[in-house]
Design a protein that fits this description.
7-stranded mixed sheet; 11 strands; 0% helix
């Protein structure tokens, strides 16, 4: 059974930092592309950052230069370092795993962790 468990969310003041972590189990972690998505109230879920199994990264324009995604295949974890946080970063952040196996795409989601940026 695949599980993705996020941690590290919370309340932070504008300009502050948070580090989100996602622990994966029940899967061949190193074979998956991993990502962080977020969903703010009344908005669609959007991609924040992604890292392929080969280590290539991609970021939403709104977080470039502020957020950094990384992965540790030995520990089956993916992290998101968030710096210079802004109120508009407030959202529920979800961990995502994505893998293509013999033409079938397998996608898994965590339950999410709340990030609130407010003074």
């Amino acid at each position: 059974q695949v599980q993705l468990v996020e941690s590290g969310g919370g309340l932070v003041q504008p300009g502050g930092s948070l580090r989100l972590s996602c622990a994966a189990s029940g899967m061949s972690f190193s074979m998956n592309d991993m990502g962080w998505y977020r969903q703010a109230p009344g908005k669609q879920r959007e991609l924040v950052a992604a890292i392929t199994r080969g280590g290539r990264t991609d970021y939403a324009d709104s977080v470039k230069g502020r957020f950094t995604i990384s992965r540790d295949n030995a520990k089956s974890t993916v992290s998101l370092q968030m710096n210079s946080l802004k109120p508009e970063d407030t959202a529920v952040y979800y961990c995502n795993a994505d893998r293509l196996i013999v033409g079938t795409r397998l996608v898994y989601w965590g339950r999410g962790t709340q990030v609130t940026v407010s003074s």
